[in-house]
Amino acid sequence: MKINILYGTETGNSEMLCEDLESEFGDDHELEIMNLAEVDPADLDLSVFHVFVSSSYGDGELPASAKPFAEKLEGSDTDLAGLSFAIFGLGDSDYETFGHGSEQLADMLVKHNAKQVGPRVIHDAQGDDLAEDVAFPWFAERVAEAEAMSDAA
Amino acid sequence: MTRKIAIIGAGPSGCYLAQALLKQDATVEIDIIDRLPVPFGLVRYGVAPDHQGTKAVSRQFARLFERQGVNFIGNLDICTDAHGGDISLDDLRAIYDVVVLATGLSSDRKLGIAGEDLQGVVGSGVLTRAWNDHPDSKDSELPAPGKQVAIIGNGNVAMDVLRILSKQDHEYEGSDFGSHHAESIAAAKVERIEVIGRSPAGMAKFDPVMVKEIGKSAGLKFEIHDLDFDAASDSENPKIAALNGLAEIEPDAKRCTISFRFGWSPVSFIGADGKLNALHIARADGSETLELPCDMAVTAVGFSDDQRLGRMDLIESAADLDNGRLGDGLYAAGWFRRGPQGTIPDNRSDSQIVAAAIAQDLATMPESDAPGREALFARFDHLTDYAAWQRIDEHERASCTEGRLRNKLRTRRDMLKLALNVTETTQ
Ligand SMILES: Cc1cc2nc3c(=O)[nH]c(=O)nc-3n(C[C@H](O)[C@H](O)[C@H](O)COP(=O)(O)OP(=O)(O)OC[C@H]3O[C@@H](n4cnc5c(N)ncnc54)[C@H](O)[C@@H]3O)c2cc1C
Ligand SMILES: Cc1cc2nc3c(=O)[nH]c(=O)nc-3n(C[C@H](O)[C@H](O)[C@H](O)COP(=O)(O)O)c2cc1C
């Protein structure tokens, strides 16, 4: 299946996770990885399944590389109806606003009529798990759901 | 032909630079050299021990060495000829095609006021290195935490110092803060901490979230002075909102009072018999002065060059400092290039810019037969490698006490024992 993976990052953890997804799933699926900083919401291909990966900063804000995308989407009437997406967060449970960056992004996409597939899971930088260990099974499940949806359609 | 690149400094900027260079050109051979036996710079020795989430960025850097073929060469000190060290910058340039200086800025900036050398006055760099168990930090340089502390500066490092002096021992669970440090702070029973900033509250350098974090520790009472100093106090301003949040805290049992003062400059440290007992501060226009009793003062007003690499001359004669070009085959990145401002993410974007410049120059650089690391291995037998760091890392994790993540080795001797012995027996 064709999947576009878009990440928002500051220190690069989210980007590295996307590279890991590419090595793990790239043979079975057609993956394209992009930095959100280089994506205009109006240009999203609504027929392709999208996976967003984003960390949180400041006081539960989006990371710098996701901010221009969010600002453009927020202020526009871009209609994302037809777009299915899943979203994975990176965060740190030391902050009360754990995972709020990815939450904001998910809410914004849904508000513009995109459809979220499956739960948003957040990797905790405080924890012992590596991001890829949390994200791989999550990704496999979301892709299975997306495939089932496109088969049904 | 493989280009040989030496990055001096295994902190965030050196590591991000290697990462970005490999993305530009996977054929280059990169050695990251550090004067310490272990990698990661201020991620290991600056970032606060109770901010493990931030330190976790080293997992990203570990990949460079574990999977991406980058070499770590530790325990090698690079200096100008005048400063001794193991090898001079010129000698190093002769054996590599490209040398990048990513050595950071580690000296505490001085205030330049009277009494700065009194016993009890300490720079935030010296203090945070000690708290992070940096092998070059000497306990003798460190004043015992006092009952009354003054912190000069309003940046995030000042907030780190404030938080660590005001937290309680049991709050370090899950950190790698040495219990000897936590115990000596607990034993001091700090009663009052004065935090002095030059700018108005709304323009202070700290991040609001750092201020909020301080309020999480039980038993602290906050006094926020001078909110109306200079700029009208705007409660919408996130920094002021965070301070107002602290002011509302009513502790059940007060341990310590923390007082924030804005719009003051330090004038002098006052002492008797070589020991600090007060800090004298004044308004910029001299309209008001105050004397704050204190037996410990921490200056957290930024960092400067340790002068061992002749940075001033290199920066002043740089060909294209904006892109990190110092001279032929010589580059600078991170704090060394930009000065002591900016967080870990800032170094990432910075290093991406410098990597692009290097990749561009490599395209037209004449071929060479630079020997690279082989020449270092031939000349020195005390170098550490990444496997040595992995042994140290494993040892530190395995030997930690209850509630801690690791127990850092505190001396070079202990590190080298683990690093070099095993190498000898496996060779
Ligand atoms: C106390 C403190 C706390 C901080 N907390 C945070 C935080 O929570 N979050 C955040 O984003 N940023 C934080 N920062 C900022 C962050 O640490 C810096 O932005 C970053 O470390 C700068 O990276 P660098 O690689 O330029 O320098 P450094 O990290 O200082 O790395 C330089 C490396 O070069 C080596 N070196 C120096 N001289 C030589 C020599 N002559 N020969 C060989 N090697 C040499 C050093 O041993 C060191 O390993 C903090 C800074 C400080 C001082
Ligand atoms: C200054 C700072 C603020 C942060 N704020 C939050 C936050 O509000 N909520 C959260 O869940 N994580 C927060 N984090 C944690 C990051 O999201 C986490 O470290 C993540 O792994 C970073 O991923 P990235 O490298 O892709 O940006 C913060 C980290 C830093 C350094």
Rg of chain A computed from alpha carbons, rounded to a whole number of angstroms: 14 Å
Q: Return residue spans of chain A where pLDDT drops below 50 for at least 5 consecutive residues.
A: none
How many helix segments of chain A? 4
Most extensive interface: A-B, 15 and 20 residues
> What strand order characterises the main sheet of chain B?
3-2-1-6-19-18
Shape of chain B: globular
Please identify the top-level CATH class of chain A: Alpha Beta
**Major sheet of chain A: size, sense and barrel closure?**
6 strands, parallel
- CATH classification, class level of the largest domain in chain B: Alpha Beta
Total number of beta strands of chain A: 6
Structural class of chain A: alpha/beta
Describe the structure in your own words.
The complex is a heterodimer of chains A (153) and B (427). Chain A is built from 4 helices and 6 strands, in the order E-H-E-E-H-E-H-E-E-H. Chain A is globular. Chain A is of the alpha/beta class. Chain A has a single domain (2-152), classed as Rossmann fold, CATH 3.40.50.360. The mean pLDDT of chain A is 96. Chain B is α/β, with parallel strands linked by helices and 427 residues long. Chain B folds into 2 domains: 4-105 and 305-420, 3-Layer(aba) Sandwich (Rossmann fold), CATH 3.40.50.720; 108-302, FAD/NAD(P)-binding domain, CATH 3.50.50. Chain B is built from 16 helices and 19 strands. Chain B has helices at 12-24, 41-45, 52-55, 58-66, 89-95, 124-131, 156-166, 179-188, 208-214, 238-247, 311-316, 334-338, 344-362, 373-379, 386-398, 412-426, and strands at 4-8, 29-33, 71-73, 78-79, 87-88, 98-101, 107-108, 121-123, 148-152, 192-197, 220-224, 256-262, 264-272, 275-283, 289-293, 296-299, 303-304, 325-327, 330-332. Chain A binds chain B through residues 10-13, 16, 58-59, 64, 92, 94-95, 124-126, 130, and chain B through 16, 19, 51-54, 56-57, 59-60, 63, 174, 207-209, 212, 238, 344-345, 348. The structure holds flavin-adenine dinucleotide and flavin mononucleotide. Flavin mononucleotide (FMN) binds next to helix 1 and strand 4 of chain A.
